[in-house]
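dumping this here before i forget
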Amino acid sequence: MANPKKLQKLPRSFYSRDSLIVAPELLNKVLRCHDGRAGRIVEVEAYRSDDPAAHSYRGRTPRTEVMFGAPGHMYVYFTYGMHWCANAVCGPQGVGNAVLIRALQPIAGLDLMHAARPLAKNDRQLCNGPACLTQAMSITKLQNGVDLVSGDRYALVDDDVPPPERPVQTTRIGISKAMDYPWRWYVGESLYVSKK
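structure:
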């Protein structure tokens, strides 16, 4: 990873576009925590308000309020009664689009990640799934609504590693609606993807 002082936070304009555009462009960006933990994004899924699998599909609720808010914020939700998942809110405010961050390649602060995920047997298991990466990065409901652009605790940053020219594009994982939408992208050669 580049010198942390030279990392550039993604601007609000990056997130202000449709989630189907933002999602593949998030590949190889870096999710960074204030304590030095960082991981390169290697797998994402897009969700939109006209998508039956999206939380925003049924409209604005207390749970999805952040998803309908300003782009560039973190939308964190609880799933299966035990896991947190982290998303980047996209599109114009009021639309309800987001990109789920599904997997990271750990690149800094691995000792802290292992402490947060004691059951991980190796570095590959630290962040190879949406629930794994939130545990490794200590993301919970307390981070719901965090501003990734102007905040100082979590950020998505660019360290000059471009997205892959030909990311693998597939259907999404673990959903029961809109299962045929090819709105999942991952870095093909990555060993840290949740499922190929």
